[in-house]
Amino acid sequence: MRKFASHIIGVDQGDMVLFSDFEDEGEMWTGEGPRLHRQKVAFSERFDTPPAVSVALSMWDFGHDTNVRADVQAEKVTEKGFEIVFRTWGDTRVARVRAAWQAIGAISDDEAWDI
Fold first, then answer.
1. Residue 103: enclosing H or E segment and its boundaries?
2. Largest CB tally within 10 Å, which of 1, 9, 59, 86?
3. Alpha-carbon distance 73 to 22, whole Å?
4. For 92-112, how does the pLDDT look when each residue is reduced to its tens digit (9 = 90+)?
5. What is the DSSP secondary-structure string of 72-98?
């Protein structure tokens, strides 16, 4: 469990297309074996410490003729941002993916006095 010492909690969120490999025969659509895509995300404001970040698929388009295998998570979380990492493997064919994320953490309060 994460406990926040600040009474000011910031929540930032977003939703972004990670890739669309169907149109241009990209590796996620045509490839086999392990495949990985990283997408950097910058927070709209800096957190005091690295926030708790959740990532979920908000849209996915997989080939119907193979197994659906996917792993999505937040990595390299800092006060300024993080990376969304999408992985697939085996014969899975991924046409496109969109991911939603939410970050929750302590932020500074310009009105607060440090005594």
1. strand 94-106
2. 86
3. 22
4. 999 999 999 999 999 987 766
5. EEEES--SSEEEEEEEE-TT--EEEEE
From the list 42, 60, 59, the residue with the least C-alpha distance to 103 is 42
**Spatial separation of the C-alpha atoms in residues 99 and 82, rounded to whole Å:** 13
Please choose, from the candidates 83, 99, 100, the residue with its C-alpha nearest in 3D space to the C-alpha of residue 19: 99
Tell me what pLDDT residue 61 has: 95
Neighbouring CB atoms inside 10 A of 72's CB total 19
Listed residue (47, 49, 53) closest to 14, CA to CA? 53
pTM, rounded to two decimals? 0.88
Local structure of 27: helix, strand or coil: helix
Q: Cα–Cα distances in Å, from 36 out to 8, 94, 108?
A: 36, 11, 35
Q: What is the mean pLDDT of the chain?
A: 91
